[in-house]
Design goal:
Elements (H helix, E strand, L loop, with lengths): L19 H11 L5 E3 L12 H10 L3 E6 L6 H10 L3 E5 L5 H7 L5 H17 L6 E8 L10 H12 L4 E6 L7
Parallel strand pairs: 1-2, 2-3, 3-4, 4-5
Helix pairs in contact: 1-2, 2-3, 3-5
């Protein structure tokens, strides 16, 4: 339901999560031929109950793992499981470093919950002295300037994420999906 998401109009019948058995089959067939995989495509990987098992399986086959999340479902328990699974890279879409902007973009999202989830992930990574995952927070620079924010408040939150150990914060231009 996010404003920039091409999936919001996709029929539910066309959505789903991959089973561990299919994932395992794919990894068994590709390991040795690929360097890395993304375990998401136009969806939220944290909805898959077997995500952490999948990450560990791929990593045990020497396949690097990356995934992208909006962090809305990244509870403290999931953050710990994620760190233990050791994906190589986790990128987090966090559009709108202010509550009003964030919640107008991430329809149904809760700003405070997402901020707490990101902070918990960063704190636990530091507490567990984990090298991985490399954590990137991604912002979108929207064509609609009212959805962008560069205020004292947003810079303070960005500094807090940096102080907690985020590896990188990047801003990307809004992507326009092709319409069929």
């Amino acid at each position: 339901r996010c404003v920039m998401c091409p999936n919001k109009d996709l029929p539910n019948a066309d959505k789903g999560v991959m089973t561990f058995e299919l994932f395992k089959k794919i990894i068994d067939e590709i390991h040795g031929f690929v360097n890395d995989i993304y375990v998401h495509h136009r969806g939220e990987p944290l909805t898959n109950k077997e995500l952490f098992k999948m990450i560990m399986y791929a990593r045990n086959k020497d396949v690097a793992v990356r995934f992208h999340t909006n962090a809305g479902l990244l509870s403290l328990e999931k953050a710990e499981l994620l760190i233990e699974a050791e994906p190589n890279l986790v990128s987090i879409s966090f559009d709108g470093f202010r509550k009003d902007i964030y919640e107008s973009i991430r329809v149904g999202g809760n700003f405070e919950t997402t901020v707490a989830n990101i902070k918990n992930l960063l704190r636990r990574k530091k507490e567990m002295q984990a090298r991985l995952p490399y954590i990137v927070i991604e912002r979108i620079r929207f064509k609609d300037a009212t959805k962008n924010s560069d205020t004292k408040e947003t810079r303070a939150l960005e500094k807090e994420f940096r102080d907690l150990g985020v590896d990188e914060i990047i801003t990307k231009e809004e992507y326009e999906w092709a319409v069929e």
